[in-house]
Amino acid sequence: xxxxxxxxxxxxxxxxxxxxAASGRRFSTYAMGWFRQAQGEEQVLVAAISWSGxxxxxxxxxxxxxxxxxxxxxxxxxxxxxxxxxxxAVYYCNRVPPTSWGQGTQVTVSS
Length: 111
Fold this sequence. Notes:
This protein is mostly beta strands and 111 residues long. The protein is built from no helices and 10 strands. The relative contact order is 0.33.
């Protein structure tokens, strides 16, 4: 089970930190990612972190978003800085490649 939290309504330039609590004993062995889906658009992977901590980012968020994980807490984080209106979407975390989805958390950035 994946439970995302931390979304909200913010103004452009603000920051948010998303959290994703995962269940299961093998969390530390999985690559994890944050995905987002804007209204009317396809879901895209914006950040990923390997089991060893290597990270990758979509060009659209590179330099602004930081993904991290705490394997002792079975939790993945997404620090989002300098948010832009185009970051507005529902954000989901999942394994990479993804399995079953959680409810996601809404991020809305006003201009």
